[in-house]
Amino acid sequence: MSLLLGFLFLLSLHPPRCSAATDTVSLSHALAGSDRLVSNNSKFVLGFFKIDSKNYSYANPNSYLGIWYNKLPMLTPLWSANGENPVVDPVSPELTISSDGNMVILDKATKSIIWSTHVNTTTNDTIAVLLNDGNLVLRSSLNSSMVFWQSFDYLTDNLFANAKIGWNKVTGLNRRLVSRKNSINQAAGLYSLEFDINGIGHLVWNSSVIYWSSGDWNGQFFGSAPEMFGATIPNFTFINNDREVYLIYTLKNEQLKVRAAIDVNGRGLAGVWLEGLQDWLINYRMPLLHCDVYATCGPFTVCNDDNDPFCDCMKGFSIRSPKDWELDDRSGGCMRNTPLNCGITMNKTGLTDKFYNVQSIRLPHNAMNIQTAASKDQCSEVCLSNCSCTAYSYGKGGCSVWHEELYDVRQQSEASANGNGETLYIRLAAIEVQSVEKKKKSRTIIGVAIGAGAAALCLVILLLMCWRKKIWFDRRAENAQGSIGIIAFRYIDLQRATRNFSEKLGGGSFGSVFKGYLSDSVTIAVKRLDGARQGEKQFRAEVNSIGIIQHINLVKLIGFCCEGDKKLLVYEYMPNRSLDVHLFKADDEGLDWNHRYEIAIGVARGLAYLHDSCRDCIIHCDIKPENILLDAYFVPKIADFGMAKVLGREFSHALTTMRGTIGYLAPEWISGTVITSKVDVYSFGMVLFEIISGRRNSSQEYLKDGDHSAYFPMQVARQLLNGGISNLVDAKLNGDANLEEVERVCKVACWCIQDSEFDRPTMGEVVQFLEGLLELKMPPLPRLLNVITGGSNSISLLPIDLK
Ligand SMILES: *[C@@H]1O[C@H](CO)[C@@H](O)[C@H](O)[C@H]1NC(C)=O
Ligand SMILES: *[C@@H]1O[C@H](CO)[C@@H](O)[C@H](O)[C@H]1NC(C)=O
Ligand SMILES: *[C@@H]1O[C@H](CO)[C@@H](O)[C@H](O)[C@H]1NC(C)=O
Ligand SMILES: *[C@@H]1O[C@H](CO)[C@@H](O)[C@H](O)[C@H]1NC(C)=O
Ligand SMILES: *[C@@H]1O[C@H](CO)[C@@H](O)[C@H](O)[C@H]1NC(C)=O
Ligand SMILES: *[C@@H]1O[C@H](CO)[C@@H](O)[C@H](O)[C@H]1NC(C)=O
Ligand SMILES: *[C@@H]1O[C@H](CO)[C@@H](O)[C@H](O)[C@H]1NC(C)=O
Ligand SMILES: *[C@@H]1O[C@H](CO)[C@@H](O)[C@H](O)[C@H]1NC(C)=O
Ligand SMILES: *[C@@H]1O[C@H](CO)[C@@H](O)[C@H](O)[C@H]1NC(C)=O
């Protein structure tokens, strides 16, 4: 918001220069250094720009002639003319029409030509016009259909609406997108997005290695890009005839500002400018993972999407150009710290080259298979015998060696490593390997020392605990006086049972939960409420009404305590704690699929009972893994239901402070419409996604750089259309899941998180879907609102007032 205000302020300081707000350059009207052309509809600007290098430690002397969106607080170049021939400070440039009719950039002082459109014009009256769709055309001033040159034929990294990408089969013109060199340099980079002559799109590295293909056009979308289907903002058209093959998109709303581009790192992206956020919402990325881009880290590196930064040098190598890395250009990769000894087997130090092994990786590109080597040792010898050999691997496929640069090495995650990770032996100068081994050894020694210390400490604690067990509290609460099976406890009894609230099980939005013992055999969970300001009588009444509600999938209320402002609820104790513990903790092996599926159905049944079956409908309002408890047999029990009743008027206050669960809140909370039981359906859908993935939907890895295309619910919706749901299942399951059930859960989840509550099923229907009693249609893709409300990153930018 302050950005927007700042921008408006800037505008008011510089009242629109009527003279400069033209869209045309002609012989008589040149464009000097700081002047701008503005398209007639005010959407696009043409001028000289320089990318702010404040964020980098290097000054940027280069400016470019380019096109960008008018009235955005941040500069987003959409096209640039002279990427390869920048205007370098302190030259002052000028855009004009030269005597041969071409549009040229001149050095104002020397009048030398820096860049030109280089075409043969047939008239002497050419002008350059910035059109409403962002196309810069060189044409006759009298006849607007005599166009000699247009920027849409020479796209850089961005595809404008109405611009073609593809081939003119007659002239051989190939319109394609090419990445930029780095974050501030507009020269062409190594990556491109282009069509082949058959009309299949490819992402290509250095015009040689294809790392993504679109598949065939089926009339509505490309096989590998199902998100094009039913796209609401752009309207795609694909043409393939004997003269042309191209893709084009149009905007239904001309005012929308969109981006479809290939970024510096070689990933395709699409996004839309949101005025409300004053930022780009990137909702499509291909590939999703950095490491799926070929050679994205350059030679002699290891790519790992779980790390930040995702590129690292191999052992024994260091970054060739730290300056370029800082600007996101990693094509130089890493270089050797110590040159190889190579053929010199016995020199002064008596050392030859050695191999250092890296485990669980995807092997480099371009392996050379050596049939003659029948063992690992022979394979290693083959590599050592040739100076250009840099690595070998010996595995299922026999012996493979690599020469010169190693490209595209990727760390496999530990979970997936069992199946497809391999070991690569990298050739290093002997002293490099020694220094690495030395480091490793010292680390194990420290590790052992720490381990031993920790074990001793544990023993002491255990002994202490055993001794304390002697004074174990063992006394039943005697003053039980509940009316319908619910016990009314005295505060002092609960204080004792919980040993003065010493063993905290967890804390939520309504208070803290403590473990307690009614006797040696009965364990309880005591919730101490923070927010309850209700009168005692009313509180008792509400608790009693909730106490009647009993269902196998709802936590059983044993009793309560209400003395003055002290309000406590006593529940049965759940030995397997809550669902989040099993889903998200990395050290836990996790739940198998059958358990997950049973838990999903159980929670659905519990909610359906709350919504429909008990006397008056109870909306839970806070469904999340923390509130789904698991008993000794992993039967799920919903906790905290009825909180609205127990907490009374203070409830709405409790919710507004409930920031932690924002990822589960339905859009109604934000739009301020009446809350119905469908908010629970929405939250339940969000929990289903987490049951599938074993990760938080709001997990940072899905939301890097405010980018929402990797957001898990979006991935699910996409893969459902794609038929690729098996990739979505938690890697911890090692593929051990019933795919029919997974698909069912995916579909249900997508239906549950529909923006409109009327599109969501009821919990009763959800139970039937999950049990396979009702068939489900294919869900529509989630819309933008879902993404925004799901993203913990962007949430702070939205005006949320839940009251
Ligand atoms: C520019 O737009 C205005 C309306 O906004 C229109 O009247 C005028 O004809 C347009 N000029 C050109 C050259 O298209
Ligand atoms: C510069 O850095 C600031 C803070 O780190 C960040 O908010 C901003 O987006 C960066 N600007 C660019 C152009 O990267
Ligand atoms: C321009 O004309 C010259 C001479 O007639 C010719 O050699 C050249 O190929 C033409 N260039 C283009 C781009 O048509
Ligand atoms: C352009 O060429 C026409 C003849 O083709 C000539 O009459 C006219 O004067 C020329 N205009 C300029 C500005 O040179
Ligand atoms: C304008 O140029 C086009 C294409 O060169 C041509 O077909 C048309 O006849 C011209 N119109 C006029 C009025 O000269
Ligand atoms: C890209 O390809 C060209 C030739 O096709 C080659 O000269 C160049 O070294 C390649 N670039 C990289 C980074 O490998
Ligand atoms: C999409 O664009 C094509 C041509 O560009 C047009 O014929 C079609 O009507 C458009 N569809 C919609 C839904 O706007
Ligand atoms: C022997 O190997 C060491 C270690 O790699 C190297 O530094 C040294 O230059 C080599 N000596 C000769 C004579 O090649
Ligand atoms: C080393 O391997 C490369 C690539 O296979 C080959 O071109 C070269 O001739 C080999 N050199 C020797 C000395 O064998």
From TrEMBL:
Catalytic reactions on record: L-seryl-[protein] + ATP = O-phospho-L-seryl-[protein] + ADP + H(+); L-threonyl-[protein] + ATP = O-phospho-L-threonyl-[protein] + ADP + H(+)
GO CC annotation, single: membrane
Residues involved in ATP binding: 527
Signal peptide: 1-20
Topology versus the membrane: Single-pass type I membrane protein
GO MF annotations in UniProt: ATP binding; protein serine kinase activity; protein serine/threonine kinase activity
Enzyme Commission identifier(s): 2.7.11.1
Domain Protein kinase: 499-774
Residue ranges annotated for the Bulb-type lectin domain, each copy included: 22-151
SUPFAM superfamilies referenced in this protein's UniProt entry, alphabetically: alpha-D-mannose-specific plant lectins, Protein kinase-like (PK-like)
CDD domains to which the protein is assigned, alphabetical: B_lectin, PAN_AP_plant, STKc_IRAK
Location(s), subcellular: Membrane
Keywords per UniProt: ATP-binding, Disulfide bond, EGF-like domain, Glycoprotein, Kinase, Membrane, Nucleotide-binding, Receptor, Serine/threonine-protein kinase, Signal, Transferase, Transmembrane, Transmembrane helix
Origin superkingdom: Eukaryota
Location of the Apple domain: 342-429
Enzyme class, spelled out: transferase
Transmembrane segments: 445-467
A Gene Ontology BP annotation from the UniProt entry: recognition of pollen
Family listed: Belongs to the protein kinase superfamily. Ser/Thr protein kinase family.
This protein's name: Receptor-like serine/threonine-protein kinase
Native species: Leersia perrieri
